Amino acid sequence: MTSTFPNISINTERLVLRPLDEDDVPALAEMMNDEQVTAWTDVPQPFTESGARSWITEYAPAERTTGRGLDLAVTEFLTQRLVGIVQLTKTNWHIRSTELSYVIAPWARGEGYASEAALATAQWLLGDQEFERVELRTAADNTASQQVAQKIGCISEGVLRGACIARTRTEDGTWTEVRTDFIVWSLLPEDLDGAGDELADTSGFTSFPDWN
Fold it and tell me: Would you say the pTM of this structure is higher than 0.85?
């Protein structure tokens, strides 16, 4: 039984999800310095191009080859512009479960890209890869991320109290860490029946293994 994800490209009507490459460094660094990304993720700030390059050339390949997860660039099909990233982490190959998260660039928000990319990834996992569970965790106050989870058909399972560290601006403009709750969501294979009806025009995907 496989214990690593393949090098994969997933196409939807508007998007291409593919492995990160070094050409993504400037756009990735710019995206990860956004205020909302800073608030709801634990990426180092400021996020430098050197950090982006290390992520692309060291961290992401190691995550895949060790079986821990998968990092995919989300790009527009027509422009090839970097829309965001989808990450799979904490993968358990015995129980066929993984945690899915997503980040969308500021300029691309409000277009349904997060939902489209997340649903296509979940369909690939629960279909082609025969996974049994996809888990999402959203900070209690991150309503945009919660809307994505709901839109792709996730089931809310409960609250992990005090399990999330978020960041907020102080009066002097610096960032400070605050503790909040995680809301846990999941998708099982049976949840995909009728899931993402609002995305029916864009959620169909084609996967291309052995991406070069």
Answer: yes
